[in-house]
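Step 1: inspect the first sequence and its tokens.
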Amino acid sequence: QARSAQAASLVAPSLQKSPAQRRGNQPVGGARSMPYIGLFMKAEMENIEKIEFPEDTDWTLDVGQAGGVDKRERVTVSMKEEVEIPNSKGTANFVVKFEGSKAGSTMNVVTVTRKTDVKALKNQTLNEYSGGDFSPIAVFDCRGMEPTRWYPVGPCKVTAADGGKVFEDVDLTDAEGDGWCEYDDTNDQPVGITGLKVEFRVLK
């Protein structure tokens, strides 16, 4: 599912930090490590109340081998997909066998419930960003791999402030560059999202 380097360049890598980069390029763990990794975002929003991502969003990511150098670009991970894990009775939302690995590496989109014992997610609402500092919008259960880049192609839903217009099927790619701009004709005001930044964080 890898795409060309040109396609991968759609998102400015300098604005995104992988778990390895945040740890000084130390791997999450061995080939079968099992951390939860959160996708956090923040952005400057003009006359915007919130950005929402459907629970069954197709997350477009670059992923890397945990403790290795192999990678895959622009893969799609969605809770709608169930893929059989080789030599196992289990399934996962995404499975890949990296070069040199004896077993397949897996990734699942995590649905947070009251039983989810992750301190970083206490009082947090996934699949939604309402402004301010970095907030988690998705969590992935990663075994043998980790996400390194997110392509914010959506589609997401953007709601203007003060009961304004709702914009469907929004692609936020422009929000990392010149900005995503529209016009809220309900409140007769411009709306925009700029300065989109992303971090992946190992959650505990």
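Step 2: inspect the second sequence and its tokens, then contrast the two.
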Amino acid sequence: GPHLKMELWQGSLPKSSLQAAEDTVTKQIESAIEDLEHLRTEYLQDIVQGTPSAELWEHVKAMEGSALEIGHQIASPQHILWIPCRTLHVETCQLLLLRNAQHMTTAVQLKLWSRCIDSACQLLALQRMHLGSHHFDVAKTLLDIANGVSELLSRSPQHLYDINARSFAEWKALEREYREEYKRIKALYE
């Protein structure tokens, strides 16, 4: 009947708000992150199940750059969408670090650890701001940073200094503090 008639705008039906939402940059970024997360999961399964090909490792390397490239489309460095971008970057770095040492020089491994820690530190700040300091994702990031710091303290403290001009003792204290904080948050969920 006439009471169910839709109102026309400029002679036609207005665009759906759902369709408009899908056209936004935010939606495009969310979609790209989701696609990369699915790929990362597939790559991880391939790596765990057997000997991955050189081509697979090239795809993982490309994904590492793509994770941050997507984020750079976000206007604000504090936007919540940086969380999945940084998380994906950290996880992709960790995936690359699974590759055995004979395929990566020490210099490449150390740079990868540095990028992973740098991204994880930025991720931690975002997580604390948006999720609070007791969220389990914060605990995971704290542990990722502590493990990375431990690795670089034992192999090349200079790489840590390049990330942040802290002394060896300050990085060691940060590692200990983050491990303790990880344990505290983990205990909340047990």
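Step 3: confirm your contrast with the notes below.
Helices lie at 17-22, 25-49, 54-71, 82-97, 106-131, 136-155, 157-163, 168-188. The radius of gyration is 21 Å.
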